[in-house]
Structures are given as structure tokens and as C-alpha cells.
Amino acid sequence: MNSATQMYALGLDQIATAILNGGNKRTILVQGHMGTGKSSLLGTIVTRLAGKLGIEHIPYSCYFDCTTKDLGDITIPKMNRLDNTDYVSYATNEELGAHHKTPIVLMIDEYGKANPAVKNALLRVMLERKIGGYELHPDSLVFATTNLGAEGVGDLLPPHARNRITVITARKPDNMEWIEYGINNGVDHTLLGWCKDNPHLFHGFEDVKDPDDNPYIYHPKQQRTAFVTPRSLEAASDWLKVREHFDDQTLTGLLMGTIGERGAMDLMAFVKLSDQLPSLQSIKDEPKTAKVPDSAAAVCMVVYRTLSTIGGDWIDSWMDYMVRLDKEAQGMFANGCSAEKYVHRKVVMTNKKFTQWAMDNNYMFAADKK
Q: Which pTM was predicted?
């Protein structure tokens, strides 16, 4: 990837905004690293439309996975007869939603991996919003996704197809962006702490000439059966959430098969730190005497766990406990709960103890001014 492409690579929120505002006229093809959430764009767009139009006006949405399709999965001929004359028309796969008379949202996933016949068959809907005998409603949104060609996983885009669409490169999230996502989506707090201390987990292979310089991520120059991506991190979180059922050997093996050997070994060292964490119940019941971890990493995990699980019934207890932590940890909590997308933002920021703490520490919330 050249430097200009990297410089103007966009975040998924930026790409969703572009699709919402121009996807009815032009098809954007989103190319990006594997496992970074490209396919989640469909849900993001539908959610934002629901917020804008109201839930009763959510359009039909289609996740059309090109890797599972052949030409017959798009249109098939059917015989018709009119005035003693036979003719052929084409029936379109209902999955595409082209038969709807109302707006639709169509995501053509893994377009670069489709066989050539499928790529060609989809070109008309991507350029003209027509397929078979159907024409999409003019407010319909169409976009596509694919992996980076440099990843070497079979994504090819012929010039005549590329010239009909707008190709956008999606950048990988950095560790703090993904942590914000993780807090709002129940990712294990131990994993979030590990990600905070290891920003290189989110680096792109383009910036790593020697694969051994970053043994955690995918690199096309070295075959790794498992590696770290945002997607595999979320899978690792699912194993960590049920770790009480496994011994260390089993858990390590599961993590190795999910994020790779080096990632699993390093993450397991972090898991052992979780033994230093006070229980949530002890913070709720005895905030002024509950255990405060010795290490900065364990304190970080306590903060992330709280951000993920905080409820209005124990914010007061948390504030009594939080002031016993160092200022960096207190600021980490404040920054997390003031983020615009934080799911518990209103509950925390309207709490009297929190607002008093903010005034006492000269921490006037930037979030309230947005």
C-alpha cells in the first residue's frame, strides 16, 4: 500500500457516512485488512438509518456473500409466452432484494473473491442499480467489501470493474479505538488491558518489513495459521469469559488456536494478573477497604471491567473505591465514560459523586460540551 493510500485510509464510521450519503448513486468498494469489521458495516448503516428514519422505516437489508455464489445464484432464465411467441426473461435471487418496491441496503461481501461470472453479473447492479428485469428503488444503498490484494488471499479486481466503482481503503483501528469498542460490546477486561499495553497488536503488515519484527499479526511473507486481528481478539475474549472451566493448558491451547502462539503466551501472562483483581462484589460492598492491585496492568483491568459493567446502583461505591487508585487510573475512567459512544455515559456523568470528583479534580467533561 503506497503512502498516499495509507494516509487517506478511512475509519469504518467515515465509510458508513459516505455510503449513507452517496451509496444510492455510486457503489463504494471497501478494501481492508481481514478481520477488521468491514462486514459489520451493514449493521452500522442499518442502525444509523433506524435512528434517522425510525425503526418502522428500516429498509430490507441483504448480506450477499460472493464466496458462496455462482452465476445461477444471481439470475436464472425462465421461459415465457406472449401472443403465441416464446421469450426468455430472468428471475433474480430474492436474497438480493431487487424485487422490493421500497429502498434496500445491499452489501456485496467478498467481491474480490467471487468467480469471474459472478463479478460480471453484479457489475450492472453496482453501476446502474439494475439486475435482470428489476431496477432498484432510487434510494437504495449498494456497497461492496473485499480484502487487500496485498494480503494474498485471492482478492482480484479487473480494471473494467474497478472503473465502475469507488474504491476506499479501510484502515485498521488502533488499540484505543478497539478498546472503546470492546468496552461497549462486553469484551473481557483482561483482554482489554492486554491490548492497552500492546498497541503493536493493531499494526498493519505494510509497516513491518521483517515478519519476525511483529510475531502477532498476519503477514503475507510468513505463513501463520493463527494471528491477531480485531475479529480473533473478540473470539479470544469469548474463551476468556469461560476460563473458569479450563486448566491453564487447555486455555492456552484454545488461545493459541485463536490468536497464535506468541499472542497466546503473552496473553496468558496477563490472565495470571487477574488474580490480583478485587471482586466486583467487594467493591460494591466495601469500597473503602476492597483490595487495590499492586501492578499498573491489574489496575487498568479493574477500570476496564468497571467501564463495561457499571450500573446506577453501584456508581457511588465505585467512586469511593476509585479515589484510592492513582490519578492516571482515575483519568482513564473519566476519559472512558465521557466518550460520546460510551453505553453508560449518561448514567455515570449525571451521578453526583462523579460530578463532584470532576470539579474537585478540575476535570470538566469535554463530553458535556459536545
A: 0.85
Report the alpha-carbon distance of residue 80 to residue 268 in Å, rounded.
65
The alpha carbon of 152 is separated from its chain's Cα centroid by a whole number of angstroms, namely: 22
Q: Is 59 exposed, middle or buried (0-12, 13-18, 19+ CB in 10 A)?
A: buried
DSSP assignment string, 67-92: GG--GGGTEEEEEEEETTEEEEEEEE
3-state helix, strand, coil in the chain (%, to 5): 55, 15, 35
Question: How many whole angstroms separate alpha carbon 322 and alpha carbon 283?
Answer: 9
Distance CA 307, CA 329 (A): 12
3-state secondary structure of 60: strand
Q: Rounded CA gap, 165 and 62, in Å?
A: 19
What are the backbone dihedrals phi and psi of residue 260, each rounded to the nearest 5 degrees, phi first? 95, 165
What is the DSSP pairing of strand 104-109 with strand 60-65? parallel
Cell readout for 335 is: 476519559
Task: Give me the tens of pLDDT residue by residue for the chain, a chain 370 residues long.
Answer: 667 878 899 999 999 999 999 999 999 999 999 999 999 999 999 999 988 887 777 788 999 999 999 988 888 888 888 888 888 878 888 888 888 888 999 999 999 999 999 999 999 999 999 988 889 999 999 999 999 887 877 677 888 888 999 999 999 999 999 999 999 999 999 999 999 999 999 999 988 989 999 999 999 999 899 999 999 999 999 999 999 999 999 999 999 999 999 999 999 999 998 878 999 999 999 999 999 998 999 999 999 999 999 988 999 999 999 999 999 999 999 999 988 889 999 999 999 999 999 998 886 544 444 4
Burial 337-370 (b: 16+ CB within 10 A, else e): bbeeebebbebbbebebbbebbeeeebebeeeee
Contacts 24+ apart (CB under 8 A), 89-96: 89/132, 89/133, 90/132, 90/133, 91/132, 92/131, 92/132, 92/133, 92/134, 95/62, 95/64, 96/62, 96/64, 96/125, 96/131
DSSP 8-state symbol, 324: T
Domains of the chain (ranges, CATH numbers): 3-170 (3.40.50.300), 175-369 (no CATH)
